[in-house]
Specification:
The protein folds into two domains: 165 residues, no CATH class; 173 residues, no CATH class. The longest helix has 41 residues. A two-stranded antiparallel sheet has the order 1-2. The protein is globular, with a radius of gyration of 22 Å. 74% of the residues lie in helices and 3% in strands. Strand 1 and strand 2 form a beta hairpin. Helix 11 packs antiparallel against helix 12. The chain is mainly α and 363 residues long. It is built from 16 helices and two strands.
Length: 363
């Protein structure tokens, strides 16, 4: 069995499933749901007709669904996530392409917790597809049939309860944040921020849990603190290139340095513990856009854009009167200004203690 799994490149490990697959899933989400949300937001805010008008209509009985350009991208989130997962698992072509149907089924049947269902089901279906790939003379029939059959059956069987479980966890986090905005603001901000820097996907975690509202705002604060914090405190070593690659890219670039000297992580993490409750208690900053935005931070400014999208959605729904100056001030302070200032001050103290020296954060 070990030889068979090795020959089929089936590696049952935390790295393969918890890091590679989860990270790829976040990219699939970004290239579908998130980019679709951005396109819709840009179209609405700048009045671009091509981005706001209906470009496709789906009719199912008496129901009609109209899609914009962004809506079409968002509708493909299930297939995009599943194919991205299959790519990370090194699926052969026939299994990889078959995952489009699997992702669509898992995401639809998983409801609001669809991303979590896609993660589990696409991994299992992909591994089954890899196992049977090129084992018969009719591979072109067998591999897609097995991959799709396993995936759709599991989608029917476990996607609804998985989706419900994910949403229940997300609801508990949101409820706890509403009940204890200070303590939960710290916890959510620190944990999601740490996940952003680790080689796992904070975006996929937030999407899977449907993390929005005040909890989503705390998550945005934590992610921004990590990215902006590392970008600022490592400027001496990495200059403008490092500022941009970490501030608008990812703080994960510091992971090799964190392994060498974990104390470089103190400043951004403590900063997130401060900005999280400021977001939840002082500015009541909610992230009511796409849940994946909660775990993106300032990567492409997706986190702040998600907060802004939530404001727009709330105004359209009648739950918010208008975007105020306090809203903008809170967004700027929580996402940019405070992470930079707090991280720099804390890092100066850490350097004076001799815990961090020049070159420790060179990327």
């Amino acid at each position: 069995m070990k030889e068979f799994l090795k020959r089929k490149n089936i590696e049952i490990s935390l790295k393969r499933y918890g890091i590679d697959a989860l990270g790829a899933m976040a990219q699939g989400l970004f290239c579908s749901l998130l980019i679709g949300t951005i396109i819709d937001t840009v179209g609405k805010q700048f009045g671009i007709p091509f981005l706001t008008q209906t470009v496709a209509t789906l009719r199912a009985g008496s129901n009609t669904v109209n899609y914009t350009v962004g809506g079409l991208a968002s509708a493909m989130s299930g297939p995009a996530m599943a194919i991205a997962i299959g790519y990370a698992l090194k699926c052969p072509p026939l299994a990889l392409f078959s995952l489009a149907a699997v992702g669509f089924a898992a995401n639809i049947l998983g409801g609001a917790g669809g991303p979590l269902a896609v993660l589990f089901i696409a991994i299992i279906a992909a591994e089954f597809g890899k196992a049977v790939s090129k084992e018969t003379k009719v591979d072109i029939l067998v591999t897609p049939l097995v991959t799709i059959a396993v995936g759709v059956f599991l989608s029917w069987l476990i996607a609804p309860p998985l989706g419900q479980a994910a949403m229940s966890v997300g609801e508990v986090i949101r409820w706890a944040t509403e009940l204890q905005p200070f303590l939960m603001g710290i916890l959510v901000s620190v944990i999601v921020g740490i996940a952003l820097t680790l080689p796992i996907s904070s975006a996929a975690i937030c999407a899977a849990l449907g993390l929005t509202g005040l909890a989503g705002g705390a998550a945005v604060a934590g992610c921004c603190a990590q990215m902006i914090g590392f970008a600022v405190i490592s400027f001496r070593e990495n200059k403008v290139g490092g500022l941009v690659s970490q501030g608008l890219g990812t703080s994960m670039l510091q992971m090799p340095n964190i392994i060498k000297n974990p104390r470089i992580w103190i400043a951004p993490t403590l900063a997130s513990a401060i900005t999280g409750p400021i977001a939840t208690c002082v500015f009541r900053m909610e992230m009511n856009g796409a849940a994946i935005s909660s775990g993106m931070g300032t990567c492409g400014m997706v986190g702040p854009l998600g907060v802004y999208t939530g404001w727009v959605n709330d105004i359209a729904a009648g739950t918010k009167a208008a975007i105020t100056g306090t809203d903008w001030l809170g967004l700027a302070l929580v996402c940019i200004v405070l992470p930079a200032v707090l991280s720099l001050l804390i890092h100066l103290a850490v350097r004076r203690l001799g815990w961090v020296k020049d070159g420790d954060m060179k990327i």
